[in-house]
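User: For my dataset I need records formatted as: sequence, then structure tokens, nothing else. Please produce one.
Assistant:
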Amino acid sequence: MKYKLRFWLTLLFVLVILTAIGVLSVKLVSSLATTIEISSSNRVAEQARALADQLQPSFDRIAFDPDEQAIVEQFAKGFDDDVWVYSGAGGLRFTIQRFTSPRLTLDDALDAALKGESYRMADISGPAPLVIASAPVMKDGKVAGAVVVANNGAGSRAVIDETRSQLGIAFLLALLVAGLLGFAFSEGIAWQVRNLKRGSLAMADGDFDLRLKGFFPDEIGELVRSFNVMAEKMGNVFRALKAQQQEMATVVETMGEGLVALRGDGSLRLANSAAYDIIGPSLWALSSKPIEEAFEGNNLVGPIKEALECKQLKQTIEIGDKVVLMNATPNAAPNATPSAAPKAAPNTAPSVAGSTTPSTTPSTTPNASVDGERPCDGAVLIFTDVTRQTKLERAQRDFISNASHELRTPTSALKGFLELLSEGAGDDEAIRERFFNTMEMEINRLERLVDELFTLSQLDSEQIYLKLARCQAGEILHNVATIAGRIAEGTDIEVKTKVDPFAPLIWCDRDRIVQVLLGFVDNAIKHSAKGSEVVLFARKEPSGVRVGVSDSGEGIPPGEVNKIFERFYRLTAKSDTEKRGAGLGLSIAKEIVEAHGSSIRVESLPNEGSTFSFVLRPAEETA
């Protein structure tokens, strides 16, 4: 009897346990299914709303253009959803259907969206799992169309099935664990399962700070502890990834070099602001056109194609009026072995920072693919604008040649005159006087060149210090005119001054201003016709006193006005006999005037003369 009672007690307890486990299982599965259905329907509804917002700006077009199609295809691929896009009249404009049944009925979703309402429906537990949502596309407050998104719910159904399978195992184990301890532990396990569910849902919502408590030293307790470790690590990883992503985005966007990332098919993956500034409108076209069309007539087509063929490049390219150094590194193809990584060629040109002249010969290194046939998965291109460096190097080379010539000419002339004088030519007073005058002019020419070189050296080493003082503009102009008169001797050019009597005292470094004005006058005399006038003027203006030099000579070609202040730059000679300076005078003048807090204004028309002027502050403002 006692065994029978034990049997019935055991059976009763087992039935209680089975009933409790059964009810718990049904409740858990039902709650999980409901939660998943709600979560799935909300997720798909948010996706439908987001897609409708993306399509809204261009939805009033008649045709469904490639940009819209690309948006829909990228959306469908990213979320593994099926998508239907309808016009305001209910006509189907575009669809992507890969997962759901071809006989799927969308009438309710479409009708709701065309009425301006959102629609969502989820059935995960049924024989054919399905999640549908729709959203209207609004235009000027009216329904312009509709977007319907559907998901076959396979992932959600798998979660439910897995949960049911796990609960079945727990159910079988409960049969073996009869007794009060079994009941207590079964209840504890159920609590832990609910706790894990709560933690899983919290992690699904992005909360990685939740930590679960485990009360049993068993597998469930280990699972809870593993869950906590996983939540902590995932939280750290997500935070690190987010910080790294923000850091990389900041670094890429603030790079001085242009960065362009291309996919394997040549389409644009990423480009920073510097790249758009360097390459220009062609890069914008690459977003929607092939390389050949986007860079038509451009020198970039060949090098980019080589980079996409798994070659590492370092090449100098001319893009319009810019000289650009391009470094191209191919991306390793998926599953690429270490041997597929690109290696630097032994004869690659040095980087811009470590070279004086960018290489004009492309350096390429083939990058072996994983299987010998598959191309690389795109390439990363770095563009460095070396226009200024190239121009400076070219100008410096020209300067060395020109300076050598400028120094050789007067020294050769002086040597020749001295030889003639030593041979008796100086016995004739007229010849001797002419020789001395010519020798003085050559010496003055040498002196100006040396002064320019010395001033340039001071500017480069930032050793120019202005000796500011109150000065009279008229006195400075008259002094310059006196010196300029000697420069103009033999040219039949008259140097005049025109001073505003109401011009106040000015605050400046007198010697430096004289140097600037003499440079202006010298250029004016060189480029003026015989019998013309060169005028030094000073007039009062609201901001101070404008001083400058005006002539009626040949003027400056429009295309060269912005270049004349560059170091070593010289205007194109009109003839082989035309005398030109070293190309430093205007560059030095610009820096001296800017050191006075002003800037040089150039007014010039071809064959009508030029005017160079700048404003100096009145002495009263600086008192």
